[in-house]
Structures are given as C-alpha cells and as structure tokens.
User: Fold this.
Amino acid sequence: MGAVRDPEATRARIYEAAVAEFARHGIAGARIDRIAAAAKANKQLIYAYFGNKAELFTQVLGRSMVDLAAAVPVDPDDIEGWIDRLLDYHAAHPELLRLLFWEGIEYGSAELPDETERQAHYARKVAAIEDGQDRGVITDAIPPGDLLFLLVAVANWTAVVPQMGRILTGGEAPDRERLRASIKEAARRLVAPGGTARSAP
Assistant:
C-alpha cells in the first residue's frame, strides 16, 4: 500500500507545498521536511522528483513564471489593460513576487542556475515590446528591455511592499483604486509614442 499510485498528483502536491514554503521562508529558510509534511509525501520523493532544495526552488519559480506568462502575456497594443491584468494576477498570486525577491536576496547579481532558460523567457516578452516599438504604438525612446523592466517595476512594487502603499497613499478601497489609476497613468506615459528615438548602442 506504500506505492505511489498517482505520481503526477504527488508532484502537484509537492509543487503547491513548495510554493507556499519558499514564499514564506525563502531558499535558506525553507525546509524540505515541512514541504513533505504539507504535501503528504515522502521526503525522498521530493529529492527524486526535483533534486535538492535549490533545484526545487528553481523549478518552482520557473513554473510560476511560465504560468504568469501564459495568463498575462505582454500586450504592447494595450499597455494599460496589461497593467490591469498584471495587478490582478499578483493580487491573486502574491507568492510569485515573493519568490522573485527571495531569489534576489539569495543570488544577488550572480548567475542563476537556470540563467539560459530565464533569458529565453524574458526574450519573448522583450520581443513583444520591441514589436510594439517597431509598429509605432509605443515609444522607442527607451530600449525594449529597459522599458519592460520599468513597466513591471511600476506595476509590481505595490504588491511587494503593500505597507508602503498603505502609508503613502492610504489603505481604503478608494485609495487603492486611485493608486491603480496612477500606476496605469504612469505606464501610459512611459510608453507614449512621440518621444526622441533611442540612440544606437
């Protein structure tokens, strides 16, 4: 009766438990035994399926980012709508940004274990921005990678530090709606065409 009857279901439980554990404690603070207990899985199965703790974190974050990319693709033709959807996604899935920040604390500017895959992931998003620039729907005054970085920073910061949002802008529903409108206006101004074209590298 100890045999694993549904490996995919077990993997899914481990993944969900790992997301919660890493989002709460980061890479250094996470414990495989807590993940195993929450997933109702044998600890050795986690190592067999995902490797060590750092490898498990990399796979968890990678999958979370793929889920975001599928759910909220970059839309250069509707930046404000994309920002809206991004804000909604992170409100519903706050663990993704927590995972990214824990990764930043752990690795800093050092190379990531999945650096090549991460570059490919972001290259597709940058290509969407560049396409919008080529078609003239958004500014080409800022290089596409820089522009994407600025846009996600504007959209994501309020979800990362909600206490600062509450202190600086207020914590009531009308305050949150006003801040959302301000974020969208900032994004609109960032991408507005008509600025000076970016200089060649």
Summary: Residues 7-29 form the longest helix (23 residues).
